Amino acid sequence: MTAILETKGLGKSFGRFAANADIDFSVAQGELRAVIGPNGAGKTTFFNMLSGTTDVTSGAIFFKGCDITRLSGTRRVHLGIAKAFQTANIYPEQTVLQNCRLAALAHTQGAFALEVFRRSDRLTDVDALAERAIEQLELSGVAGVRSGDLAHGDKKRLDIAIALATKPEILLLDEPVAGMSRDEARKTEALIRKLASSMTVLIIEHDMDLIMGISDSITVLESGSVLANGTPAEIRANGRVQDAYLGGHSEAEIES
Amino acid sequence: MNVSQRGAGVRFALFTLAGLALFPFIFHAIDGYAGLATQIVIVSIASIGFNFLLGYTGLLSYGHAMFYGGGGYVAALLLIRLMPQHPNLWLAVIGATLAATILALLVGALAVRLYGIYFALLTLAFAQMIYFVVEQAQDWTNGDDGLQSIPAALLPIGPYSIDLGTALPPLALGPFGNLSDIKLWYIVSALALCGVMIGMRALTRSQFGEVLTAIRENEERSSLIGFNAAAYRLAAFAISGALTGFAGALRALYDGSVAVESVGIERSGSLVIYTIVGGVQTLLGPVLGTGLIMYLEAVLSAHISYWRLVEGVIFVAVIIFLPAGIVGTIAKRFSGRAKDRALLAKSVSTGSSK
């Protein structure tokens, strides 16, 4: 399998504090990879460097073999890297459909288009892309609702739908089920599993049930560096991982 | 665009035209004069340009006088230096608008990456630099004295060259004055304003306006779905500067002179005030705000010497009591009612479908 996304010696420092250091990471096309680690392990910083919202201090990022280290987040979206945020990042004043239409519009028109007289409401490809994303996240029932009025779980799923409407090849999900009820989390888990059949998915999550259940493989970060890589079974059996979690966090998370 | 949308557009155009046709006569009845009506119509175009930037990108420019006065000087200089024998209004206005657009692209390239007070200060600094240049380049601009006696531009249409100073035929209209008070200048300016308003209405409903609105609402998300936010803001800044420069050019040619104050900080500030008093993000607000303040200034300053104080009080009162501006407040009240009705209709229909 070829790597779709790869990092070499990737590091990020804030002043003297190294949030990420020397991360060598590779995810294969079609893989569902989880990135886990205790709080403060640098997972979100790592994701932000991948999505282009945080500058890289050292090392390089490759997408399908091309160096994208210096490309803006906007450029990376058009290459096919999309992200859903830890805190649902949506357009609260717009409807669910319009949220996804904007993402689909960005995908079809490009980063900038001086369309000053044409309205977008006749662009059927935009509508189709948006509606498909909404269906995939099972939000059709609330498509016309102002998104700021959605329940927490729906907002989180809308954020994923927005990312999906950009037609990504790789989807970065930052804690997609955080704050959801158990039922909502299981439902979202099933949706993510379905998405993963057609694209590469990278996921940060604290919910160990979900991680162990759906990941093809897991990367464990600790103190900004890679502690271990392996299948869920390997990670579960890894003594160093257990120590890291027991040292930094509750036992229940890894045991469950 | 469906039929009902087009119908709304046509209605809007007709209402705007009708309002502008009646304006100078009603204005006469309340002590206004036709010359002031023309100036209001022209300056309104600049306010619309300013409002587009503030309302659709959230960027408050405190330097729009550089486009307004800049447009005026460029139009005047084009006529004085390049075509004193055959003053062509088209060429002067188009040249000035192009110059303002280029200036906006240059300033904007640096400014649109900044926000809030930093953006305001940078635009102010650029405007002050332009002011300095205009004041110092005496050979070209006459410095503090400004450019007087700009040749009366002729508007070539087909084989005709129209002098916009021509008055309409006399016809007494009682309290509404006389038809001959109106010069062709007013008609041309009113048509220009009407065109700008129709264009602005289309622009804010266009795909471009839709993306600008999205960027204003959530820039982080917009960048990470693939919109180049800086490019959109730069384009909006250029459109805004172009409209303001266009208005400045018309004003200079109408007045027949251009003063150094037209690039000054007070001019920048007045566009802020007109727009906010009328209502940011509304189509009519900047026009109404411009008309109201310019009218009060002309009428009141003739009677009371502390007009500036009155203007300040109006501005403060609007900010405190009508933060959405006059038109914005009225529109909100109406749309609030419309929303209530829509909600009611929705709850009724979903109730019956279950």
What is the count of helical runs of chain A? 10
Number of helices of chain B: 14
Shape assignment of chain B: globular
Return residue spans of chain B where pLDDT drops below 50 for at least 5 consecutive residues: 350-354
CATH topology of chain B: ABC transporter involved in vitamin B12 uptake, BtuC
Taking pLDDT < 50 over at least 5 consecutive residues as the criterion, the unreliable ranges of chain A are: 248-256
* Proportion of residues in helical segments of chain B: over 70%
In oligomeric terms, what are we looking at?
heterodimer
* CATH second-level architecture of one domain in chain A: 3-Layer(aba) Sandwich
User: What fold name goes in the CATH topology slot of one domain in chain A?
Assistant: Rossmann fold
Number of strands of chain B: 2
Give the neighbour order of strands across the main sheet of chain A.
6-7-8-3-9-10
- Give the averaged pLDDT of chain A, no decimals: 92
Give the radius of gyration of chain B. Answer: 21 Å
Output the CATH class name of one domain in chain A: Alpha Beta
Largest sheet of chain A: 6 strands, mixed
% residues in beta strands of chain A: 15-25%
The strands making up the biggest β-sheet of chain B line up spatially as 1-2
Question: Describe it for me?
Answer:
The complex is a heterodimer of chains A (256) and B (354). By secondary structure, chain A is α/β, with parallel strands linked by helices. Chain A has a domain at 83-167: Rossmann fold, CATH 3.40.50. Chain A is built from ten helices and ten strands. In chain A, strands 6-7-8-3-9-10 form a six-stranded mixed beta sheet, with helices on both faces. Chain A has a four-stranded antiparallel beta sheet with strand order 2-1-4-5, covered by helices on one side. In chain A, strand 9 and strand 10 (225-230) form a beta hairpin. In chain A, helix 3 (96-109) crosses helix 4, helix 3 runs parallel beside helix 5 and helix 4 (124-136) crosses helix 5. Residues 248-256 of chain A have low confidence and may be disordered. Chain B has one domain: Orthogonal Bundle (ABC transporter involved in vitamin B12 uptake, BtuC). Chain B is 73% helix and 2% strand. Chain B has helices at 3-29, 34-57, 65-82, 89-111, 116-136, 138-141, 184-205, 207-217, 219-223, 229-255, 265-278, 285-303, 307-321, 325-353, and strands spanning 154-157, 160-163. Chain B has a two-stranded antiparallel sheet. In chain B, helix 1 packs antiparallel against helix 7 (184-205) and helix 2 (34-57) crosses helix 12 (285-303). The longest helix of chain B has 29 residues, at 325-353. In chain B, 45% of the residues are buried. The interface between A and B is medium-sized, with 37 and 27 residues.
